[in-house]
Amino acid sequence: MPAAASHRNLGSSSSTHSPMQRLSALAPSPGSPLSPFTYRWPQDEVKEVVQKAQFLELVRHCGWLLKQHGNGPHPTWSKRWFYLLDDRLCYTDEPGTVEDVRYIPLDRIPVRALPRGYGPQIGVTVIEDRQIDKPELPAQSAKKRACVFSVQCGTHTHFMAASTAAEAQLWVDRITQTWVHCSKFTGRSIRARNLEDSFVHSQQHLLQENAALRQSLEDLTKHQAEKQSHFDSTDRSQSMSLHGTPEPVKTDPAPMPASSPPITPLSVPTLPIESQPDAALTGPLLSASPSMQRRSPWEEDYWSRPSVELVTYELELDTASCKGAGTSAHVVLELFGGEGTTPSHSSGVHGLEQGPYQPIPFGPGQTDAFEIRCERLSKLVMVRVAHDNSGQSPAWFLEEIRARPKGTEEWTHFYCGRWLASKEDDGATSRDIYRGKRPAGVQYHLAVKTGDVRGAGTSANVYLIMHGQEASGRKHQLTAGPRDFDRGNDDSFTVEDHELGDLTHVTVGHDSAGSTPSWHLEALLITHLPSGQQWRFGCGLWFDLQQGDGLTERELMPTSDKAHLVWYALTLCTSDMPAAGSDADVFVTLHGQQGTSPRIKLPSRPEDFLRGGEDTFRMELQALGDIVKMTVGHNNRGCDPGWRLDHAQLLDEETGTVYYFACHRWLSRDEDDGLIERDLFPGEAESHDLDVQYTAEVFTSDLTGAGTDADVSLVLFGHLGDSGPQSLNGKDAFGIAAIDVFQFTCKHVGQMQMLRIGHNNAGASPDWHLDKVIITEKESGSRAVFQCGRWLSTARDDGAICRDLSLSPEADEEDQQDERQEAVEAAVKTEYRVWVHTSSCRGAGMQGRVSIELHGQGGSSGLQPLHAANDDAFARSQESEFALYLPHVGALEQVTVATDGSAWLCDLIVVEDKHLQETVYFVCGRWLGKGEPNEILLQGSRTDPRPPFHDYRVTVITSDVRNSGTDADVFANITGRIGHGNHSFVHAGSLCSSGRQQLASSNADAFSRGATDEFALRLRHMGQLQELHIWHNGTGLATAWHLSLIIVADETNGERWFFPCHDWLDRENRNSRVLLAQLEEPRLASNMIDYQVVTYTSDLRGAGTDATVFVELCGELGSGPRCKLMNQAGAADVFGRGQTDSCVVQSPELGELQSLTIGHDNKGQKPGWHLDLVEVTHLPSGRLYFFACARWLDLAQDDGKAVRVLKAQDSKPERAFVNSTLTDYEVTVHTSDVQDAGTDADVSLVMYGASGESKPLPLKASTSAFASGSVDSFTVQAPEMGPLTHVRVSHNARGAHPDWMLEMVRIVLINSAQEWLFFGHVWLHSGNDNQVVLKPGQSANHS
Predict the structure, then answer these.
(1) S-S: 1282 plus which of 504, 1211, 1251, 1252, CB 3.0-4.6 Å?
(2) Distances (CA, A) of 675 to 275, 631, 644, 646, 948
(3) How far apart are CA 1271 and CA 1269, in angstroms?
(4) Could you report how far apart the first and last alpha carbons of the chain are, in Å?
């Protein structure tokens, strides 16, 4: 809006002319020129203008300046009072005088034609000292500090000097803005062939315009002759700036809420009188703007008043002293007077700005004083205060405002005590405050205890709200200093609040600000200081978006005064086996004879709950008495949430009692029984969980070169587990014929069975010939001898540097066995082949250790560990093979199977005796470990109990959609259920599995788009098929695979089963699926239909997302597959702010749609998404469904959900977040005419204004747009955002020649003809330099 549109009109309420017309017409006769393009304003005409009550509102800027006089070699400088009107720059000897007023007409300031693309520039600019003569200046002059500016008027240039460089630039900006406004509302704004001609008009037209204005003025003068009142010069001089230096009138006050009383603001008369050009001048006078000819009833009432009385009001504003209470925003204020409590008239809106030599206002704990001048108000009843939310820290906590007429003693109090902040309190930045003093309050003392755990301290701003039986208190920001809320801190605060009564609960939280916002609150103690009553609030929880339950605000209940608090130390031991560690959040609940603790989330770190780790946590809880049970579990979040807990130990630090909880089970959805929460009961500590000391005696052979200087290590294996790697290091160890003794401590391995020993092949002489190793358990004295007698060398023997040594018979140290005895022992050893079949039931597999003992007619072999080559040897549905070399035990009759305590369901064990050439089958079908015996004795049978082999044919149909094929390796595992009495080794109704089967084909086009591939498998009969697990390994160039259907046919008996999928198998949607069997043939992809999905992203800041969006449709006939949404046009910038995106998805016929599931994968730099509306069209019928959302899909906003289920609606709802007030802007882009300045990239523009910003606006044009030297015009739509502050121009760096040299951008708001010029003359290259920020009238800045 033009600046003059906010001024009040002069004259009567019946006039239809603008203030500029009337002010211009008040000079009926030409002034007398004093110098070229300098005029004297006749005194009687000046008085006629000044005596208008609204004259001061027309002054745009004023102040003292030094003006140069004379054109000779020694010009002089004189101090003059300057003020700027709508069409002239006036100056006098003193403020307020009406005598000898001179002026420079703005319409005589020329336009300078600049090179092509730069646009015009008017003759007002800041200049350097060297451009003018340098006579001695008065002492008060600041000319020598580069504060001189020039105003060219016709053929003459006027030089003025300000006191500071900033003040000089301000004068230049104000004169330029006024000149632009003047030119737009005169005949100069008529369009011409070029920019230079557009500011030239015929003399005849101007004279005719002046005559029409004179006639309008005469009519106005007659009507208002009796209603005019005069200001005396004293009153006018008092209307200057409060700090002694005049300040500009605030013509664009901050907007007030729509609920405000309908009071038209009165602009503050802060500037002294000055003058206006003469009608005889050859330049145009200002014409009326249509928007300035309409007046509200309030304006009519105001203009009907005969006169007003202006008074000065003193103001004091108190800012709170809490952290972050001060504001960097621009504050405005309006006083209201009236009778009773109803406001009836106002002071108008006043900006409260920092004056010269004054401190920065509105700091924390600061009281700021201001004075405003306005018409006299009756009794003050209300004050309206607001800010524009600008600056780095706009939030403001206002305590109180006091106001009084100057010269009086009694203050009127307006107590606020609330935030004016978009992110605090109720989010309001404007408040209406009625008169009233600060309510009587009481003081509360707060003692805050931060936890003493790693990362417990916070950098965020902590707040607290107390809630009592009588009322709830206000929000208190807690701050004590830079070190408050550090780890282990005890911070104290004293706050004042209302009398709340007995506290019922408190709300505590923080704003997640700073680099380390995570906070662990231990406890809070609140004391009511007048009475001394105390309330204690225990917590012991994290306030963090990433840890615990993700909450940053909690409600805490007071604990009983008689509560007995006890510290407990909990140690959790993770099993030492593959994948035993977890990155999920672990929680515990303790159950005692005197009560149960709350569910406690343990404050974990990345290094907690790792394989083989021991993690200790301290908790302060109410005394629970003797512990009878502990519940432990996790939230199943993270990349690897599965966890195998070995055991836990709890210490009651008050009594010293230690409770031991054995577990030895998985807490995992994919292992054991699938539970992620277990109840553990205290018991005796298991011996194999205790640390045991072992002694290792290493005998190096006496052969030449037998010694080694490499680093040696060993691993001891027993029936309870292994010792883990143990390093054997010592000075001069492992010499020729040396006996080296080492001690190490590890978990008890039970009966020793095998030793793995080796070295790292480092050093000058790494080769080593090991004779034997003797291991002794210190506590029990048991010994184990492991004979070797071989080289550990890459150059000798078989090249191995690590060997597994079996247990040797015990012998006296002095009785060495001869070679013949060793040959005899070797001759009687037999090879046994063992196959172990793990059940296909859920949780049947394990990653523990299995041992086996063979019983024959000639004796037993002892427990022998089955050492697996990989971690999935005993996984669900797995069949694993092992080789044992043992003394022959005769014909096999029984076998003993033992585990390390892990839960395991074994179906069958098959043993082949190579010596007797017979195979024996041992049917198990029972659980071992975890509540069941760890060992079991099985009877043998020479008859194979397994089902017979059947031939199965597997048909795989890949979907016929874009990029649906894959070149990865595909695998399948088929599960069936055996019927009653079919086979002896399984129970009736038990599940059996095919195990992992690779679907390999010699066809290079297998699994391509729309392909049907067949595979033949020979498997054991699996009965009625139940499910099929299909997956691929993600290798190859095209890994994503869209699978439609799998058909499995038993060609032995002719049965068929169908496994529909209709979904992607890729990294984003998991590359594996478990498909359920059905007997009826489903609808194939060829029978699928198309649905069009249109998404409307909200027009809010940050509403767009760069995550991958998916949708699932649900109807009365079932649910469709999960489909990724891709824009039909193939645009890269989908789901942007305010954007509408359309795509087509395929699904089986779903019938009448009922709901829709939509979400994203939370990936990318800005995954958060605010979705407004979804439209779905059933394309075959054209049926349209609507799904309203109007919420965030964001883990960090709203309720933290990235997936939402939306219900279908028949009618289109009103969109909640769309900017419907769009207006037209004309954008003209000038490309430089230098060589190769043009671009063929796509150009876009973002406009930023005082009240908002636009979304990215693509400048779409013909193929010849943005060529070298071209001028391209566009019309775009965007919200009206006030005066433009800057624009961002960018291109997408595409095309053969993306580089572009931008000269200038010109933007016109079409409905008001406002215009902004942005000068560039800058290159926009590919990469990071493909965008630039331009400000009005300034050079470019890359961003």
Answers:
(1) 1251
(2) 88, 12, 11, 15, 35
(3) 7
(4) 29
